[in-house]
Structure formats: C-alpha cells, structure tokens
Known about the structure:
Layout: H1 7-23, H2 29-35, H3 42-54, E1 58-59, E2 68-69, H4 71-81, H5 86-99, H6 107-122, E3 125-129, E4 138-147, E5 150-157, E6 162-168, H7 180-198, H8 222-236, E7 244-247, H9 249-252, H10 261-273, H11 275-282, E8 297-300, E9 312-321, E10 324-334, H12 339-357
Antiparallel strand pairs: 1-2, 3-7, 3-10, 4-5, 5-6, 8-9, 9-10
Amino acid sequence: xxxxxxxxxxxxxxxxxxxxxxxxxxxxxxxxxxxxxxxxxxxxxxxxxxxxxxxxxxxxxxxxxxxxxxxxxxxxxxxxxxxxxxxxxxxxxxxxxxxxxxxxxxxxxxxxxxxxxxxxxxxxxxxxxxxxxxxxxxxxxxxxxxxxxxxxxxxxxxxxxxxxxxxxxxxxxxxxxxxxxxxxxxxxxxxxxxxxxxxxxxxxxxxxxxxxxxxxxxxxxxxxxxxxxxxxxxxxxxxxxxxxxxxxxxxxxxxxxxxxxxxxxxxxxxxxxxxxxxxxxxxxxxxxxxxxxxxxxxxxxxxxxxxxxxxxxxxxxxxxxxxxxxxxxxxxxxxxxxxxxxxxxxxxxxxxxxxxxxxxxxx
Length: 363
C-alpha cells in the first residue's frame, strides 16, 4: 500500500505504534505530548492522528478511546520507520554462543536450546524446523515419460529411499507437438547428464547444478529442471507434523491479546495438529540480501494466510548449510510486537544456526 506521509505524520505514527506496543492501551494525543518530544501542540497531534486514521493506519476500538495501529500501520512502521536493534542482535548472538556448545551437542539438543533462549528473550512462541534427510545423497536419478507431456522424476538416495514427483514438460514452441519417441530419447540423455552431475551430492545441492553445461539441444530443459529439482528437493526435505520445535507458549499467553480461550485453542491446534501448513509458511524460499546476512520475513496480522494466526505477527528466516537452506527459525506473537527486537533476534538466531550447522554432523 502506497501512503505518502509527511515527516511529522511519520513521527506521530512511530510514536503511536511505539506507545501502544509498550502499554497495550489505546493512544491519545495527551500521552504522546507528555512522553515524546514531538515539538507540536496537542491539537496538531490530534489532527495528524485523524489523517492517519483516514489513511487506514490507525483506528479507534471504541468511540471514546484513543487510537491503535492497524495492520497497515504496523507495516509502514516496520518497513519505513524502524531499524532492527544491532545491540540486541549482538546480545542474542553472545547468549547463544555462551549457552550452547555445538561441538558437544547433537542437532536436536542444539535446536531445543536455541528455541528456549529465543522464547525467553522475545516473549513469543518460537518455531524452529528440524531438517530432514539432510545427509541423504543422490544415488540414481531418472526421468520417465508416463504420458504425453508428463514425466515422473524418480530419485534413489544412498540409503535406498525412493522419492518421486510428477512434472509437466515445458512447451517447446507454439506449434510443436510432443513426439513420445523423441521425448524418451531426450529424457534419457538429460537423465544421464543429471546423474553425472548429481550422483553423490546431497539432496540439498540439487538446485546448484551448472545448467550452462547442458547441451544446446536441450537448453529448453534448463530453467524447467532447475525449478523442478529445487521444488523436489524442498518437498523431499519436508518434515512430518512433529518436526517443528515449539517453545514459549507460557510466555505468549501472558499477553492481553491471548486472554480469550478460543483464540489460544486455535493456535494450539495449529501448532499441534497442522504443522505441515505452518512449516510451508515459515520455510519459504528466502534470498540473502548480502553475503552472510539472512533475509527476515515479517507477516503482520491479515498478511498471514492461516486463519488461526491472522491476529498475530510471524517473523521468520531460514538457516543454511553452505548455500542451501535447511531449516527455519521464527517467532509468533501478537501484532503488538517489539519489531525492532524481534527482527534482530530472528536474524541473529538464523545466522548463529547457519554457522553452527556447518560444524555439525547432521546424521
């Protein structure tokens, strides 16, 4: 949403969100005048808050009450008005390093310890996905035509597990028909090429193939296979419904937003019985903005596609092994969240886990 705000309106929105996060009480102009150095009168503050309300960034829960931020107001606050706390990021990193020892820890115990620390520091529910099949290596791969325009991708790993997926072939051209015999020959050649490149490599690495080496004759398969194998790898690594580590329910239940039992029950049901949906939400494809710095995704309120958490904010990032994403870390709490701190916390945790994971034997 594009909303053009003056510097004064931005400052007043920042102060309103900050005050509401701290107090959980609707914010009036008098409170802002007393607690923030805005340099303007109470009437000017009221007028600015009225403009922000008309823009959909603030609203009044009751006629006689002050104003509270909307999801759109929080979005502008997060995107334009704050910077993640570098001080907190360093504190989180130091706490993780001092409290956890990856050299003497199993992967599971490391993640359990990290999840509990994050829950305590954030006051939110912490979610950390546990990588699956991380050490599985490709033993054999085959592309098999099963009908016109459709192919089955079959991958056998070094522990003789078989994974398969149905794929639609990419179109060759507007007026080109699929010739089954030609397709069979091409698929065998492409399968041979893939086996030579991928045999003995981790499932995590299948998207890192040098597609420029594919013969010119089969260039049209390149981007298609790259995307298909990346998605296949992600699906093969998708954990079962018990493979998200959850900590911090006690912390978040102290927040006034979770005073209603029904809302708490729907969140608990999501965490306990519908983890696959949640896993797909927090383990999304994330690109790094700069070397060594994971990107943090912030979903606020109605931006969350899952109904039980549409009144919550979910902040997440992925941790890596080398260039491959292997898991995710996130915090889930009310939209009235310390975003500066939570974003810094998640980024620091993802960076710590990425570093630790490169030293662990994830068998």
